[in-house]
Design goal:
The protein contains 4 helices and no strands. It is mostly helical. The chain has one domain. Helix 1 runs antiparallel to helix 3 and helix 2 packs antiparallel against helix 3. 7% of the residues are buried.
Amino acid sequence: MGRYSLPHSVRNLYLWVITRQSALCGANSGDREVAHAVQAVRYRLWYLIFTACLCGVLELLGWSGRLWSSWDPFLDTPFKME
């Protein structure tokens, strides 16, 4: 039997085990986004609000999808969020 011998309907979409610990570490990275926002306002780098902070929000959305997938790796929506 090969490594991927199970039918696709039985395997999860990731082909690896998602751990809650790694997902929580990534999802708790909001402190970096707050630091970027504070730096943008302090140094008057207004473009950082629209770039780094927006990307940080999208990163938190992706880590939230990974955390959601750790509870049920067979769902399609969190896979697409990530």
